[in-house]
Amino acid sequence: xxxxxxxxxxxxxxxxxxxxxxxxxxxxxxxxxxxxxxxxxxxxxxxxxxxxxxxxxxxxxxxxxxxxxxxxxxxxxxxxxxxxxxxxxxxxxxxxxxxxxxxxxxxxxxxxxxxxxxxxxxxxxxxxxxxxxxxxxxxxxxxxxxxxxxxxxxxxxxxxxxxxxxxxxxxxxxxxxxxxxxxxxxxxxxxxxxxxxxxxxxxxxxxxxxxxxxxxxxxxxxxxxxxxxxxxxxxxxxxxxxxxxxxxxxxxxxxxx
Length: 257
Ligand code: NDP
Known about the structure:
Radius of gyration: 18 Å
Bound molecules: NADPH dihydro-nicotinamide-adenine-dinucleotide phosphate
Largest sheet: 7 strands, parallel
Order of helices and strands: EHEHEHEHEHHEEHEHE
Strand order of the largest sheet: 3-2-1-4-5-6-9
Strand content: 15-25%
């Protein structure tokens, strides 16, 4: 049990990577509070996670709601050892066709929401706690139409270095997990039907050196590592879980002769 007697807060814990991570944490002995906006998926997640979980409805862009969720988790658990600031949204912001509201909503959720989640939780984090922020390989790829999303994830990476420095005096570690394309509901908008998803996966897999999408459980295992004492001397780092997309960008099947 790598997280025995540990407590965790996971934003966006009712879906995809956040939910897989909540399952992994609980399997290792933690008690976990998950947040999200959607009450139906929160209820379903809670049913799947069992007695060592609590579910709290909170919009990460609403600072008061975030502070309330943190207070509820602390009331239930007595303190926090792990914070996974995972909630995030995708969005298309092509040059020449983007609206301010869309651009700002991506930044507000993916950067501002992350900062204020950490700020709300910081007073209640036990010394030696671990914070993990969810970044993305998209900060590195220059993928057309992704300015706001790529900037938001690059911002998360930059912010993580600052937070790691500010919290180091308390022995709190701050790291980023940066997934590559991973099979979760985040792709539902871009590929609304199973056929469209198959096509999209084919295209994406072609530029991933390992030739496939990642699974949420693979990200969860890396977050578990960063959350646990196995990573006791790891802070200020970014770990890519992307099938080689960032480290070996022309290694994908489409580049092979
Ligand atoms: P999902 O869409 O499955 O999960 C996103 C989660 O974020 C949901 O639980 C959603 O809950 C929550 N969320 C979104 N906006 C808010 C908000 N304003 N307040 C509270 N919760 C919110 O996608 P993933 O699991 O894939 O995404 C998780 C993270 O991983 C994101 O930060 C994403 O950018 C990142 N990522 C994902 C990749 C992928 O290919 N899947 C690749 C790289 C990074 P609700 O809707 O109930 O609010």
